[in-house]
Amino acid sequence: MEASRLPGFLARRVVKSVLVVLAIVVCNFLLVHAAPGDPASVMAGQSGAADPLFLEQLRRQFGLDQPFHIQLWVYLKSVLSLDLGFSHRQQAPVAQLIAERLPATLLLTGAAFIFAVGGGVALGALAARRVGSWADSAITALALTFYATPLFWVGLMLVLVFSVWLEWLPSFGMSSVGVELHGMAVVWDVAQHLLLPALTLGLFYLAVYARLTRATMLEVADQDFVKTARAKGVPEGRITRAHILRNALLPVITFAGIQAGQLVGGSILVETVFAWPGIGRLAFEALLARDYPVLLGVFFCTSVIVVLFNLATDLLYAVIDPRVEVG
Amino acid sequence: MRDFWRRYRRNKGAVVGLALLLLVFALAAAAPLLFPGSPWDMAGAPFLPPGEMGMLLGTDSLGRDVAAGIAHGARISLMVGAVSTIFALGVGVSLGAIAGYLGGFADDLVMRFTEFFQTIPSFVLAILLVAIFTPSITSVIAAIAIVSWPPVARVVRAEFLSLRGREFVQAAEVLGKSRLSIVVGDILPNALSPIIVLASLMVASAILLESALSFLGLGDPNLMTWGFLIGSGRSVIRLAWWMSVFPGLAIFVTVLSLNLVGEGLSDALNPRLARQRGGAA
């Protein structure tokens, strides 16, 4: 893409992302109102906080006695000023609860993502290099297996094997309880705790990316420019790396962008299994307590993360592939 | 039909998948005969390991038979998978047909809507929907349907876009057929094969989604499901591995068989594509 067209492209993508975020807020608002019973009782959370005086106060605060469109406007304004409501179960603002838990989730999903993309592309490339070999069949079989296995069950099985039976790795939390650690020891401790959850979350996507990489590499390998390169006498390894893989990566990036949402969603399951202290675990706790403001906040927050991630992949795509259609 | 079966049979994995799937169906159908009575009832001492006291797959923390739970859970999983897929197909096919056949503004509108649903984290939305509308078999099916229609809409739209300019559609238009009858009677039958393949994969992912929801405690509280079994085995995994291992295997076998059948259907319905792939699948 010419440098002069990049700002316009960027602006359009940003506008689109903002619209999606607005739509998500509206979606949240509609959900609160579609819920059985009074929106005030939904916001209060069903348990504990439902005394009439308090509900009355909530109704006034959120203008529930006002017309529908004004309520929507009030809600929009508060969410966009990052006021995600108050969790009466935890006696803290939802935004603060999420902010405390966000780094752990980002660490987990980030590690899983790097593992999935790196491993998937490597395995896919290997399978495509040797179509029909045992390595190819093994990778295809592996992909089929992880396609069909529930994420949370994989996590439990890993716990069973590596924590319960072999006692190699810790099975829950983010750091060891009751030990004072400093410097690199902390990093090492967290890394040990991170390994199993990240593997669990990443394995499925590793399978997805491996299959995708294999398929697109086989497709690209048939194209004329590869034949030309081969006719010119470019070494086979270089053809694979520079000609085939580079072009085959584009659909993988697109797909990775689309899948970001599912990765974040999957982290709820993984964090539940491993008691990883991120927003997924927060969502699970909120679920048990029927703490709706927190659930709505988590939905909003994860959606925003996905939108930002999509924006990033769009930009990355535009940088890697100059032919990308601007629009 | 015989031709179809001949092509399907060529994919060995798909044949195995079909056999496994029939087995799961048989288990679901025979559950009341094999394990009469409610799977919620106590059947033996708590935490019996597999094989002891006639409990094939052991018992859980309340002495319930894990095997009975799996057999009865099969009915729920298959039912939720099938029904939610039917609803998702209904929404996806309608929207995709509108977008693909009408084009222009309608197409833009529908595609933006579809994109929005594909952007938001679908699992989080499903959790939110079930939690807010209180967990029940209806809310679970509705939530799964709501998050799984977008791929259908995209596939159907693409098919309709490529089919609507073809001669047989033009002929139908010249004959003065109504739009609805062209869409339903002429175009849709020709777009069926990708929809069928997609449907089999959707049942598989719906079963996974249902198990994840009930694992988190969002299943119908009156129904025994595989996800619930695993969820209740989670906290006692050090004590009773069988409680979470076997229901997980049940999910794995069912979903795998559906995926294999989907690939077989895809090969059988698109013979040209299958040959291109060199039968590698």
From TrEMBL, chain A:
Membrane topology, from the record: Multi-pass membrane protein
Domain ABC transmembrane type-1: 102-317
Chief site of localization: membrane
Protein location: Cell membrane
Keywords, alphabetical: Cell membrane, Membrane, Transmembrane, Transmembrane helix, Transport
Pfam annotation, one family: BPD_transp_1_N
Signal peptide range: none
Transmembrane domains' residue ranges: 14-35, 106-127, 139-166, 186-208, 248-274, 294-320
UniProt xrefs under CDD domains: TM_PBP2 (cd06261)
Similarity section: Belongs to the binding-protein-dependent transport system permease family.
Protein name as annotated: ABC transporter permease
Organism of origin: Roseococcus pinisoli
From TrEMBL, chain B:
Key word Membrane present: yes
PROSITE patterns reported for this sequence: ABC_TM1
Sorted UniProt keywords: Cell membrane, Membrane, Peptide transport, Protein transport, Transmembrane, Transmembrane helix, Transport
Domain ABC transmembrane type-1: residue ranges: 74-262
InterPro entries tied to this protein: BP-dependent_transpt_permease (IPR050366), MetI-like (IPR000515), MetI-like_sf (IPR035906), OppC_N (IPR025966)
Membrane topology: Multi-pass membrane protein
Compartments where found: Cell membrane
Superkingdom assignment: Bacteria
Transmembrane stretches, start-end: 76-102, 123-147, 195-218, 239-261
SUPFAM superfamilies with a match to the protein in the record: MetI-like (SSF161098)
Family (UniProt): Belongs to the binding-protein-dependent transport system permease family.
PANTHER family cross-referenced by the UniProt entry: D,D-DIPEPTIDE TRANSPORT SYSTEM PERMEASE PROTEIN DDPC-RELATED, OLIGOPEPTIDE TRANSPORT SYSTEM PERMEASE PROTEIN APPC
Protein name: ABC transporter permease
Organism: Roseococcus pinisoli
